Amino acid sequence: MLISSPWICRLLIAALLFLSNAGYLGAADAGPSPGTYRIVNGKVDWGTYAGWFTYHLSCHMCHGQDASGTDVAPDLRKSLKTMTPEQFANIVLGRYRILDAPAEGPPDEAVRKSIIDEVLQHRRGVRGQLAMPVWNSDPGMKPHILDLYAYLKARSDGAIGTGRPKTMDE
């Protein structure tokens, strides 16, 4: 059976996660504080693993398989070098990054309307300029925003490599 809708795929994956043992991510592991990661012998805590899972549900299509960037979206390993958890959550949950604001002042009404239309339709603009969706309304993103940050920070710091990380109980 071929599933063509990405939302149906996400729903099925979320249901499988919920029904599996992985649905209890972090339940038995006190883990590090939110937004941080712990790695022991190359294995990650459950929060960081949940961040990897969230990344692959929502972000990898634009930012690349291992957060290394694409021709459409930036390398998140570089972005996380200086970004705080608060800045990260604000960007992911609260705003679009479409175009740089013009240096000479606010955009005229036609430009503003064009940007709003693009945002509302979740379209990509000119190649290389991403109309990043605001993930605030995605029920799978908000509760895992700090897990996502922890995973990306671990990638940025070089603490974990590419691919699916192993958890501490594997």
Characterization of this structure:
This protein folds into two domains: 130 residues, Cytochrome Bc1 Complex, Chain D, domain 2; 34 residues, no CATH class. 42% of the residues lie in helices and 2% in strands. A hairpin with a 2-residue loop joins strand 1 and strand 2. Helix 2 packs across helix 7. The chain is globular, with a radius of gyration of 17 Å. It starts with 5 loop residues before the first helix and ends in a 13-residue tail after the last helix. About 9% of the residues have low confidence.
Return Rg in Å: 17 Å
Strand content: under 5%
Class inferred from helices and paired strands? mainly alpha
Poorly predicted tracts of residues: 19-27, 97-103
* Main pleated-sheet profile: 2 strands, antiparallel
Strand order, largest beta sheet: 1-2
Q: With helices defined by DSSP (H or I, 4 residues minimum), what is the helix count?
A: 7
Q: Per the principal axes of the C-alpha atoms, what is the gross shape?
A: globular
What string, H for helix and E for strand, traces the elements in order? HEEHHHHHH
- What CATH calls the topology of the largest domain is Cytochrome Bc1 Complex, Chain D, domain 2
